[in-house]
Structure formats: structure tokens, C-alpha cells
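Bumping with the actual sequence this time:
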Amino acid sequence: MTLLAAQNLSVRFGGAEVLSDVSLTVHPAEIVTILGPNGSGKSTLLRALLGILPLSSGQVTRAAGLRLGYVPQKLAIDRSMPMTVRRFLSLPTRVSNAEATAALARVGLPDVEARQMAALSGGQFQRVLLARALLSKPQLLILDEPTQGLDQPGEAAFYRLIEEVRRETKAAILMVSHDLHVVMAASDRVICLNGHICCEGTPRVVSNAPEYRALFGLGTQGALALYQHQHDHSHDHDHGHGHDHAHPHSHDTDSHTHA
């Protein structure tokens, strides 16, 4: 079953093509991470998949009745306007106290309903955004650089939380990130983007692909190895949608194939 599929998706801003001929799929209960340097079109791709941006060509297909949850890259809160966590969780759709309490407990923030949003730390704020996204009981959770601005321990804790959410809810996760060290271990499949898909596959294989190294260099191997034992035992054998080898993608051909 495919939850979300993009076929030959292209996006233009003015006369400039930001994304070219992108095809990808997301299956139930898998964690897919899109990696790419600044300006590679990662956030543009998410907004196109969500239907926020128009396509210049291609199409996006969703499973019938697909429930989506979305955690944006940034959300500006007017610090002069009082806004409790509880009130925020009921925007735009009101939820019960029990639902709000359960969602906050799920993300590790019990008893913060009365706190002001403006008083939360960066990590707490991102967890509240995740709690709000989970209230819709999503089958697919889309996160746009959810750990931006967090320190490395905060990043690692958030990605562990994402893995727990996937395990408990069976939701698929589609993440965009530029963080290499932790995110590679938290993913079942990695897609390298630089205006087009350069390569994709399991983290271990993609990290050794020439296309990946051309974008990111060789500096992530040691950090990846720290998490490799967890990834080997918890992901490679549990999910049938990973690739056994990386799939490089030439920007100059039309032969883009994705499992």
C-alpha cells in the first residue's frame, strides 16, 4: 500500500526551476528522510506534497481518506499575546481535555497545559507542535526540519521520540532535515535532494554512495557508526520497504525509478 506518491514532480518560481522531475513514495509505518544542502528544495518539496504550492508538472497522489499531521519548520508566536499550551492545542480544531493531556504525555510533556507557549524552550515548543499534529491520529506525519535550533542532545531526543511515535501509532514519517549525524540512524530510507533526487536507499548504503558524498563529504561516517548497531537491529529487518542498494538518479535522464 502506498500512502503518498509523487510522479515526475516539478516546481518553478518565476523562471527558475526549483524542483525537477522528482518521484517518490511513502509506505505505511516507514520513516523516510529527505536530506539536502541549503537551497536544495527540501521545504518546497514538502509544501508541494501537502498541496500548499502549485506544481509546474507532475502529480501527487494520496491514499483515499489519508490523515495527515504536519509539523512546520518554524511557527511564529506573538510573545505579547497570551497563549497557553492548552489553548494552542485546540487551534484550529477544538479537542477535549483528555485528548490534549494524552497528546502531551505522548511527547513527554505532562502537566504543561497552563504554561504559556512563549515561555517554552525550543525543544518543548517542538514537542508541543508534534503533540498537536498527533491529535489528528495521522497515518502520515510530515515534519519540516523539526530539530532546527536544538542542540545535539535535543536533536537525538526528538528523533528517538519520532521512532517511538512510529512504533506505537504505526504512522509513516516523512521528514526533511539537514542534520546528518542523528537523522541517518533514525531513518528506514534516505532520499538525497539537490533540486532533483540524487540518490536514495537505506542510510548505510546512501552514506557510502558517491552522490551523497558529493553533497555532504565524508564527515558523517563516525557519527553514523555510533547509531549503526541500533539501526541494524531495529529497522533493517522490520520494514519491507527499505532498499538493499542505493539508487542514484541522473538529472539528465528520464529514467527515474523508485521502489
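The C-alpha cells above came from a reply further down the thread. Strands lie at 4-13, 16-26, 31-35, 57-62, 68-71, 140-144, 172-177, 189-193, 197-201, 247-248.
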